[in-house]
Amino acid sequence: MKRNVIWGVSALIPALMLCGVVLAQSAQVATLRGAEVDEPVAIDQIHRNIEGRMQRNYRQQPPLIPHTVDQYQIDTRTNQCLSCHDWTKAGERNAPTLSMTHYLDREGNELDHIAGTRYFCNQCHVPQADAPALVENDFEPSSGR
Length: 145
What we know:
This protein is mainly α. It has a domain at about 65-130: Flavocytochrome C3, Chain A, domain 2, CATH 1.10.1130. It contains 3 helices and 2 strands; from the N terminus they run αβααβ. The protein has helices spanning about 1-25, 80-85, 90-95, and strands at about 50, 130. The protein has a two-stranded antiparallel ribbon with strand order 1-2. The longest helix has 25 residues, at about 1-25. The model has no long low-confidence stretch (mean pLDDT about 80). This is Periplasmic nitrate reductase, electron transfer subunit. It is found in: Periplasm. Belongs to the NapB family. One of its GO terms (biological process) is anaerobic respiration. Component of the periplasmic nitrate reductase NapAB complex composed of NapA and NapB.
């Protein structure tokens, strides 16, 4: 009896899977983009970069980037941010130097080069922009800046 139940269930599973595939293929899914995946879509410029530095809202907030980074290459081999902001070049390029925390490894040892944990700048830093809020926000900065 138990063997018959196992055979019945094992025969039913492929049939149910086939029905699921057929239903998924026949369903019409609307795209969020309003276009096919391989169709290029023109993107409107919805915001503009703000020149100059914006004030931070809280202690330890990573600074916002006051310039566009659209064409910057940041990958495992190249980090174009370091061409101006590394401590060896910042003075001659008139750019802010990275904080010393960027040159500490996980154990707190000082390094001569940027730590691997701080190498990808856009993990924490984003370009500042005059963009509409995506969600309502009533955050107020602390008074003790």
